[in-house]
Amino acid sequence: MSQTDLVTEITKQSEDFSRWYLDVVRRAELADYSPVKGCMVIRPYGYAIWELIQRELDDRFKATGHVNAYFPLFIPESLLMREAEHVEGFAPQVAWVTKGGDEVLEEKLIVRPTSEVIIGTMYAKWIKSWRDLPVLINQWANVVRWEKVTRPFLRTTEFLWQEGHTAHETEAEAHEETLRILALYKEFCETVLAMPVVDGQKSESEKFAGASRTYSIEALMGDGRALQAGTSHDLGQNFAKAFEIQFQGRDKSLQHAWTTSWGVSTRLIGGVIMTHGDDSGLILPPRVAPYQVVVVPISRGNWRETVLPRAQEIRGELQRAGVRVMLDDRDSQTPGWKFAEWEMRGVPLRLEIGPKDIEKSQVVLARRDTREKAFVPMEALVGAVTMRLDEIQAALLARARAFREEHTSATNDYEEFKRMMEGRPGFIIAPWCGSHECEAAIKAETQATIRNIPFDSPAPTAPCLKCGQPADVSAWFAKAY
Amino acid sequence: MSQTDLVTEITKQSEDFSRWYLDVVRRAELADYSPVKGCMVIRPYGYAIWELIQRELDDRFKATGHVNAYFPLFIPESLLMREAEHVEGFAPQVAWVTKGGDEVLEEKLIVRPTSEVIIGTMYAKWIKSWRDLPVLINQWANVVRWEKVTRPFLRTTEFLWQEGHTAHETEAEAHEETLRILALYKEFCETVLAMPVVDGQKSESEKFAGASRTYSIEALMGDGRALQAGTSHDLGQNFAKAFEIQFQGRDKSLQHAWTTSWGVSTRLIGGVIMTHGDDSGLILPPRVAPYQVVVVPISRGNWRETVLPRAQEIRGELQRAGVRVMLDDRDSQTPGWKFAEWEMRGVPLRLEIGPKDIEKSQVVLARRDTREKAFVPMEALVGAVTMRLDEIQAALLARARAFREEHTSATNDYEEFKRMMEGRPGFIIAPWCGSHECEAAIKAETQATIRNIPFDSPAPTAPCLKCGQPADVSAWFAKAY
Question: Full-prediction pTM beyond 0.90?
Answer without folding.
Answer: yes
